[in-house]
Please model this.
Amino acid sequence: MQTVTINNLTKKFNSTVAIDNLSLSIRKGKITGLIGADGAGKTTLLRTMIGLLLPNEGEISVLGFNPVTQKDELNEHIGYMPQKFGLYEDLTVLENLKLYADLKGVEHDFDKMLEFTTLAPFQDRLSGALSGGMKQKLGLACTLLGTPEFLLLDEPSVGVDPISRKDLIKMVKEMITPETTVLWSTAYLDEALNFDEIIVLDKGKSIFMGKPTDLADNTKDFENKVIELMGGFNMETSPIAQDYSEIQTDIEYTVVADNLEKRYGDFYAVKNNSFKIKKGEIFGLLGPNGAGKSTSFKMMCGLAKPTSGTARIMGIDILKEPEKARTNLGYMAQKFSLYGSMTVRQNLEFFASVYGVKNTKEKIKKAISTFNLEEYENQPAEDLPLGFKQRLSMACALIHNPPILFLDEPTSGVDIIVRKEFWVHITSLAQKGVTVMVTTHFMDEAEYCDRISLFYKGQTIAVGTPKELKEKANADNMEDAFITLIKESEK
Amino acid sequence: MKILFALVKKEFLQIMRDPSSIIIAFILPLISVFIYMYGLNLDSPRITMGIKNDNPTPETSTLVKSFGHSKYINSISTDNMKEIEKDIMRSKIRGAVVIPNDFSTKLERGKSADLLIIADGSETNTANYVQNYAMQISNLWLKTSKYKNAMAKQVIEQNSRFWYNPDLDSHHFILPGSIAITMTLIGILLTSLVIAREWERGTMEALLSTSVKPIHIVLSKYIPYFILGMLSLLFNVFLCVVCFNIPFRGNYFVLILVSGLFLFASLGIGLMISTKLKNQFLASLMSIGLGFLPALMMSGFLFPIRSMPLFFRIFTLILPPRHYVTFIESEFMAGSILPIVYVNAIYLSVLGFILFMAVLKNTSLRLEK
Model:
């Protein structure tokens, strides 16, 4: 039985071909993973399947309906979770659930759902005030209401910590029936490895369809296979780092956090956070959503005022001389914070000029080519696929050759090849003496860090090299170490 | 039906949690009523004038005194022409009256005497007041002075009655007019944001994958803002009639009916902007340009339409606030005048219906046309 059959589907946006003569089928009752590079057409494919977009050519049949002509009938049988899920942030958790239950015509019986999502204690909280992982769980809960026959999830695990990510998968597996078909788009290959089937998209074409275990049986090999399918990865040296002038300084600890604390009323977002980062070190800040990582980042670059304590960047106190300290910083915020209506080039030009960069033209040309932004050069930044937005943010953060880099989830939503590229840049820059502080939810990336601070509920619960942390938790990979150490601290 | 009810409820919750809609519906009218009541006054102003008497006699001194006694004039006596010039330049006085040295002599001889009135022509409106006040006061003085026999005999006795607004109090039409402004803001500005907001926050994409139909989306936007607007109308009328004693001579049923039609048309404009633009910032700019400014300047609320050039006079006919301002001012001051009520009610309901259909047609269930 097939839930979806697609024959020779083509979808164009003006002259750009998003889906190119694609044919595929999705089996009923299976969980199918959809993976592919940024801009490969994953979101477009999902949207076309449920009739939100109309195909230019080809035929689609979903649950026996034609989404072009029978969208209304089809909608009654599906659950779709868009990438930017439509939670009403000014409604509470319960009000959101009630709304979607009414829209789908199902009873208001949320006990099981609230228990599964562990949202029960927060049911009267405004959904805008939830942490990233919680929001995704609520979004998924709303999508699962009414037990749809076909579930389409567009990267539900972007920006979600390993624990919440496991919860999302558990939620789906437990809430569906054996007849439910799931199509799950993801950037996490370890996730995809556990699905029944996978489809790998590349430039609007399917380059692999079948069981993930046909490719490999462990994450490492699977990853390599997928990379190979997507054209291979062969970047060894970073062109950015090559041109970077060696950082000269006598300061031993270029980044110092000194008893940083942020309190809201009785609630400590960050409590007594102290660490020192050596010149040229890659320091990873790991922790679940809402642990206070972003707050620490903001305090350390002078965007949020600490309740007490301070930070020093290249020996300069961020509280006393914020402007001076910041000239040494390249900061990449978690939320896309460039000018959406300006083009890629205009954004780069703007950041180059605010930082007073010399020979701007050359620098921008270089940045555009190293991050493969040529195709999008004259497009408004807000129209870029997620992964390209991240590349542009990184390019803007690096444009003035700062000796220190703060990267808040730089690889969130970026495809595997670009993630690898990002890390080649990061490690090569560190060799040139750039100090890097980084957060990530990809535990394989944590291995690149020289030292890691594990952060939970506003406090540091463990610091050390990846090896030390794994030994401490008695685990053989970072993900297990992460989960074990967090659980231990709960006791 | 259940879907519609759920969406309407959601919209209400959002309105309640969003302070800006409550501010526009209830706080803004309060502020604007106070401003229009105490800050803005289109009635005859009190004017400061200089007075120079070059012919001091007992008779002329009574003339000077009558300038001093007038409730429309503040008079400052002076005997220096230079000073008058300087005071006018500094805007200390708006004009001056000079009694020449042959004033009484000429009157004694039964000749016509001159009285010099100086006004600041750069402010024509004020200059007119200066001239009229000076003429009226000197005529009144002449009637009671010993030269009254020299005056031509008055053949026509003037008797003025000001219908609909006997006290000539401009607040009686400004305050009702301000209701039209508030209703326009609720109808156009608030609603221009609501559909655009759903697109921006990604909630629309999630809605479109459920069994929601365009009519549900459209009605769920019309109904809550219609109710909010009508509540604001009642609050406004209460402020005007009860708190500020503005006379209401019309019929409350007719007032509510036509106001409802006006709101219906305004909501249509706001939602049309919102569906078309899908961007809150652009939508708010557009609604100020298309909604608020025409309502303020071209509805006859502040500037009389009759003194506009022909092109604009015709143009104003398509603006819903222009019809509504005419209606609400006459409803308050003159009572229900049926031709005005019919014309406005028919125009507003036709326009409202066309806009409703247009909004419905433009609410697509897909991400592209």
In short: Chain B touches chain A at residues 2-3, 5-7, 9-10, 13-14, 17-18, 198, 201-213, 365-368 (CB under 8 Å). Strands of chain B lie at 47-53, 73-78, 95-99, 116-119. The two ends of chain B are 27 Å apart (CA to CA).
